[in-house]
Structures are given as structure tokens and as C-alpha cells.
User: What shape does this take?
Amino acid sequence: MSNELRYDGRVAIITGAGNGLGRAHALLFASRGAKVVVNDLGGSTRGDGQSSAAADKVVEEIRAAGGEAVANYDSVEDGAKIVQTAIDAFGRIDIVVNNAGILRDVSFHKMTDGDWDIIQRVHVNGAFKVSHAAWPKMRDQGYGRIIFTASAAGIYGNFGQANYSAAKLALVGFSNTLALEGRKYNVRANTIAPIAGSRMTETILPKELIDALRPEYVSPLVAWLSHESCEDTGGLYEVGGGFFSKLRWERTQGHTVRLGRAITPELVKSKWSTIVDFAKATHPADVAAALGPVMDNVNAGASKG
Ligand code: NAD
Assistant: This one.
């Protein structure tokens, strides 16, 4: 098929690719010609233990189908070693899919420092370590695609997931800044918030849903965002079960108090219905746009004063 999206000559690292979503991403990239580093620590969903079996199995699957892949068993916390595996095996790195993840679900009042720390370490520090090691190589070659894996729990909050929600939304801000810093080097960064049946969700979702929400339904978006013909960057996408969509911030028109007047809690209360009214909402897309009304008010105050 002539219009097939191909990744020949590209090298992709997929973290946490021994199971679930990462495995599906790895198989798709490899089937389209990419050389794949299948990273997986091989631990439990809680992050306990370690094994080479998960990554090895996916590498075998890829090779059996005629693709190219190598395994890496390091934790994403040792991201530089994972990038080194790509360089040693294939000589370059073009695509990083930050996908590895674990859960330590517990209601906030019972959450320990350990529950909090390990989640930040794997999701946030892990994505930092892998991306940071790949970044100079992507900049130098003028090409790179980085995907972050957030979650609806981070966007909307979810009971028992304060640690995970914080980590997942951190990745959105992280990705947005890399999108800005990478733009002129043709390094694009995007974030997905997926839903899929996997060992991570099998204890919370009913069996019919697990079967219906196949990880393979998420990977095509990751592949498209990682393709050289996709220019989009700094996006956040919800994806799963055949549904694909993009999210953005929405802001009310708000209320502006001319500077010089008393700004009191009573004033905020009296204007509350306007402050929270989305009828004339806008969608600021960057810090400059977000600061627009603030600067207009400051400048109006300065020109009067
Ligand atoms: P999964 O448990 O099937 O796969 C995650 C993989 O990451 C596992 O193979 C695990 O061994 C690996 N891993 C864990 N810690 C690692 C580390 N430190 N270094 C390297 N590998 C490590 O889960 P999944 O559902 O496929 O989740 C993949 C990603 O998607 C995670 O980041 C998860 O938070 C996110 N996510 C999943 C869903 C969903 O519905 N499944 C929803 C939102 C977000």
C-alpha cells in the first residue's frame, strides 16, 4: 500500500513494552519497519520485582514476524542506559515513547511517602531520564518524536490515585515545554491519555470492557504522532476503544478589576457568577495568550496613572 505510514530507518524506544500498551506500540512500530528497543523492567504492577522475561517475549514476537528489536531490562530511572542500548544496537534514536508505569493506589489519608515517591520516580523521573538522554541526539540530528503517557486520572482526578494523578499531569506540562524547546529542531512532543484493557486495569474494569478496550486501538495514534509527516506538537489526546480526541484548556472570559480599586474577597464574591461563566470562553494556547488580559489591565492602569 503506497500511503502506508512507514518507519524504515527509524529507531524507537518504547519503555514498559513488555506488556499492555507498550507491547502493542512496539509490535506496531516494528511491523512498519522501525528498529525497536523493547524496554521493560519486568516487575509487578506495583513496581515490585524484576525479570527479563517480559521484554524478551516481545522481542521474540517482533523477530518472529520479521522485525528488528532488542531488549533492555533497565528501569526508566536509568534512562541513559536505555538510550545507550539504542545507540549500541542501531546507532541512533528517533522516537521515544514514555510508557512504563506502575500503580500504588490508596486513599490519600492512608498514602505513605513511599507510595508517593515511587510513583513520581517511575512516571516523572523515568520519563525525564529517558527523554533527557535522547534529547541532545534528537536536537543534533534535527529529528525526534517524544510521546508521554498521561491518564484521565491526572486530568480529572480519580479516587485513590493522588500520587498517580499528580505524576500523570506533571507529564503534560513536561511535554508542553519540550514541544516549545524542540520546535526549531524538529523535535515534537505530545501526550496521550489512553484507556485500555491491561494487567493495570484488569482489577478495576469488568472483563467485557477489558476485552473490548484493546491496547492495539491506542497504538495507531502513538504511531501517527511519531511519524515524520506529523508536525503536531504540544498536544494532549484522549484515546481508547476506537475513540480519538484532542483536549485543550478552556478559560472563562473572566472579570477584570481596574487597578487602583480595592480588590477584596467581597468583590470576588460579588463577581463570582461572571468569573466562572464559560459562555464566552477562550482557549489560550500559550503563556503569552494566557497573560493577555493581565497585561492589558496592567498597561491600562499604567497609562491612566
Ligand atoms: P502494564 O502494567 O500492562 O504495562 C506497564 C509496563 O511497564 C509493565 O510491563 C512494567 O513491567 C513496565 N514498567 C514498570 N515500571 C518500569 C520501570 N521502572 N522501568 C521499565 N519498565 C517498567 O500497564 P499499561 O496499562 O500497558 O500501562 C502503560 C502506560 O499507560 C502506563 O504509564 C500507565 O500509567 C498508562 N495508562 C494506562 C491506562 C490503561 O487504561 N491501561 C490508562 C491511563 C494511563
Summary: The longest strand covers residues 187-194. The mean pLDDT is 96. The chain has eleven helices and eight strands. The pocket of nicotinamide-adenine-dinucleotide is lined by residues 15-16, 18-22, 39-43, 45, 47, 54, 75-77, 99-102, 122, 126, 149, 151, 194-196, 198-201 (CB under 6 Å).
